């Protein structure tokens, strides 16, 4: 907010918080000082809240990893690792191409490559 107010010379008016009105004609120099102070306080509180949320997120991730639940986190896989490995045997036996298998499984080529890389890594 401070960047918009000072650098870009944009006035900030919050309708339900009348003390925060950066238009100099409304409150004069004292009003401008108070607005600047309120903007600084709000910026600090926002930054502190963001840091607190990031720390809580980090702690949650560590806890999930310690409990062994991290692999289940996020978007579910389209097909299981076992199913992909079984289907990929057809490519190894030259019964179909990678492109044909990718289309049969209904996954994108980037997902196919990622699954293949995971399978080969063990």
What does the model show?
- The mean pLDDT is 85.
- The chain starts with a helix and ends with a helix.
- It has helices at 2-7, 24-67, 81-92, 98-105, 109-121.
- The relative contact order is 0.07.
- The protein folds into two domains: 2-72, no CATH class; 81-121, no CATH class.
- It is mainly α.
Furnish the topology, listing elements before pairings.
Layout: H1 2-7, H2 24-67, H3 81-92, H4 98-105, H5 109-121
Report the structural category. mainly alpha
Rough shape? elongated
Rg estimate, integer Å? 28 Å
Mean pLDDT: 85
How many alpha or pi helices? 5
Q: Name the beta content range.
A: under 5%
C-alpha end-to-end distance = 50 Å
Please tell me the total number of domains: 2
Q: What is the string of helix and strand elements?
A: HHHHH
Helix content: 55-70%
């Amino acid at each position: 907010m401070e960047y918009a107010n000072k650098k870009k010379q944009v006035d900030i008016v919050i309708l339900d918080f009348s003390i925060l009105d950066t238009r100099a004609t409304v409150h004069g120099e004292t009003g401008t000082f108070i607005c600047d102070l309120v903007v600084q306080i709000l910026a600090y509180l926002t930054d502190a809240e963001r840091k607190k949320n990031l720390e809580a997120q980090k702690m949650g991730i560590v806890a999930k990893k310690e409990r062994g639940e991290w692999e289940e986190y996020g978007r579910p896989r389209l097909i299981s690792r076992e199913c992909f490995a079984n289907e990929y045997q057809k490519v190894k036996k030259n019964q179909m191409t990678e492109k044909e298998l990718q289309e049969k499984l209904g996954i994108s080529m980037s997902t196919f490559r990622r699954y293949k890389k995971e399978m080969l890594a063990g």
